Amino acid sequence: MKTTISDFIIAFLDLLEAEGRTLREETMRVGWGLAFVGLSAVIGLVALGFFLWGVYQYTAAWVGPPAAALLLALLALALALATARLAVRWTR
Questions:
Q1: What is the distance between the alpha carbons of residues 79 and 68, in angstroms, rounded to a whole number?
Q2: Where are the alpha helices (DSSP H) in 1-92?
Q3: Is a pLDDT exceeding 80 seen at residue 1?
Q4: How far lies 53's CA from each of 11, 19, 73, in Å?
Q5: What are 3-53's pLDDT values in tens digits?
Q6: Which SS3 state, helix, strand or coil, does residue 4 take?
Q7: How far apart are CA 17 and CA 54, in angstroms?
Q8: Exposure on the CB side of residue 85, measured as CA atoms within 13 A
Q9: Residue 69: is it exposed, middle or buried by C-beta count within 10 angstroms (0-12/13-18/19+)?
């Protein structure tokens, strides 16, 4: 059985074609995954905003708007600090 350089070149190009197809499929899969993560992050932020707004409305009925705004600012600051601590802990 005699193998020539052209057989190696053809085999190499076939391998490149197969790997290129796999790369394209995996790139699309990762892209869609990132798109859905981004979409869920936006939806989560909107939900958090509505939650804080609802807590503000409930608190404003009890203590008045200025005090409710102060309390909600402190709650939002506590949530931001807790999220930052989790981010630092998870990225170590």
A1: 16
A2: 5-63, 65-90
A3: no
A4: 63, 51, 11
A5: 788 888 888 888 888 888 888 888 999 999 899 999 999 999 999 899 989
A6: coil
A7: 56
A8: 6
A9: middle
